[in-house]
Amino acid sequence: MASELPQKKRFISLRVKLLVGFTLLFMVVFAIAFYWFYTFATDVAMRQIEEDMLTTLEGGLKGIDGDAFVALAEEAELRDDGLSDDPRYWDHMAWIETIHDLEPRANPYSWVRGDPNVQNEVLFIGDILRVTQPENATVFREPYITQGSMITGMLTLWEDLEPYQDDWGHWISAYAPILNSAGESVGGLGIDFRADYVYQVQDSIEDRILISFAITYLALFVLVYLISRTLTGPIISLTGVARGVADGNYDQDISKLYGGKTQDEVDALAQVFELMVSKVRAREEGLKRQVQQLRIEIDEVKRTRQVEEITGSDYFTTLKEKARVLRQQSVTDGGVEES
Fold first, then answer.
1. What are the residue boundaries of the structural domains of the chain, listed by start?
2. What's the rounded Cα separation, in Å, for the pair 91 and 97?
3. What SS3 class is residue 115?
């Protein structure tokens, strides 16, 4: 059974392999670096926002008298427009506005516990939205059913650091208890803190990282292309020389492939190839001489064999016998004449 011919493989140049390999490696490394920097910058921005929020909350608590606050919640009367004429109410609202003025990213509000018979109910006392967005603000002592976080915030510091979004932006929140002179919790102060800065940082990183990626990749792509050309150029030339040698052309100048001032693996390969070519040429010339000598010897053997075949034939034996007889007759005839 005839052996199957090897299938011809698809040719992919070394330059293409280098460029593809570099591209994949660069993308992986760049993706890891981007993820690390993106996460690091986001964490730093979030920690800064958290720190500013807690600082604002702590400062806000210092400006609230717990005893006056609970008296306000219990004694102030509600007007028809949802506000109150009680001076303590306006003092409290002035402080709420001061907190916002000192830190415009903070939206403060306060509350007290609502009906104990209603689970998680609180009553809003102060609300910065009554100043900044009256149409969206709560009214004085407006009841609200919380999910429990505001109730927890009346007992201890509570933070919601997972940014949430509404129609006015992204926010994180923190709550802390308002204490009276006896150290008892009588309400809570909350801060909704604008967290858009985190997303601004993320967007800025994404925009700049794309530009950096494009510039860096283009520069490194050109660099790898030039390096690959430096590497593959001598190999391509050496391949051409090898094809010439395969066709019997041994008079090619290979020294130009390693004639630089420095030496590397490609130069060593070219030198070894030149040595190989010289040895192959010498071996081939030796074989040619041996073949020529062998031809001469074969021709001599053929001639000897042909002579042997001729001299050993019956026809040649007959002719030889006839020649002997003729020689004898000639000798006999010559002797008779002399006598």
1. 63-194, 265-321
2. 10
3. coil
